[in-house]
């Protein structure tokens, strides 16, 4: 990934966009309609016990209508992005400027998540942003959903119980915003990559 690519958005996606990411995710949703018999309940394939949300908050009949092949492709692309970010961070000089909560919200509302910005966010700030986003997206997923994807890419493992809790809050918001492509993408990553359960 060259320096010019670092100026590209991590993910820019809306229902009206015709960019490659949007078209890919729309194709995933369309293909999923042909694979209803193959729809998977994520909890059947995950053994992580970190889900701390009340099971009543997640609809029992919610199913992530993606095939195993589609899920693997999403995770592969996500891993590549994470590998780039973490490789860069090994040699990064810590930025002493630390925006506060309100400054971060204003920035996210008015800017796309560019790679050159995301890779400068340290681990502690990433954890704070996961927490703050879990509240912010409840009322404005349309504008902040792409930032959820970007911050997930920057999130280190293993997850603390608190971080797992906030991821589950974000997942519930995504479920409430499905079947928008970006919401399905985030649900897929939170469950299959970070090991959170859709149902207990």
From TrEMBL:
Pfam family, one: SIP1
Entry-linked Gene3D superfamilies: 1.20.58.1070
Taxonomic lineage from the root: Eukaryota, Sar, Alveolata, Ciliophora, Postciliodesmatophora
GO annotation terms (biological process): spliceosomal snRNP assembly
UniProt protein name: Gem-associated protein 2
The organism of origin for this protein: Blepharisma stoltei
């Amino acid at each position: 990934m060259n320096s010019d690519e670092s100026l590209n958005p991590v993910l820019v996606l809306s229902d009206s966009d015709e960019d490659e990411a949007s078209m890919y995710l729309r194709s995933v949703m369309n293909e999923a309609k042909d694979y209803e018999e193959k729809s998977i309940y994520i909890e059947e394939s995950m053994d992580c016990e970190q889900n701390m949300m009340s099971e009543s908050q997640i609809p029992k009949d919610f199913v992530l209508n993606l095939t195993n092949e589609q899920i693997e492709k999403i995770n592969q692309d996500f891993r590549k992005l994470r590998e780039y970010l973490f490789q860069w961070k090994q040699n990064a000089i810590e930025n002493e400027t630390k925006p506060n909560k309100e400054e971060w919200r204003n920035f996210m509302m008015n800017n796309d998540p560019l790679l050159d910005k995301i890779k400068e966010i340290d681990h502690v700030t990433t954890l704070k942003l996961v927490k703050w986003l879990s509240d912010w997206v409840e009322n404005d997923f349309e504008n902040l959903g792409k930032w959820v994807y970007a911050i997930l890419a920057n999130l280190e493992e293993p997850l603390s119980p608190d971080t797992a809790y906030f991821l589950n809050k974000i997942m519930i918001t995504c479920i409430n915003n499905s079947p928008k492509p970006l919401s399905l993408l985030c649900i897929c990553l939170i469950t299959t990559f970070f090991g959170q359960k859709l149902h207990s």
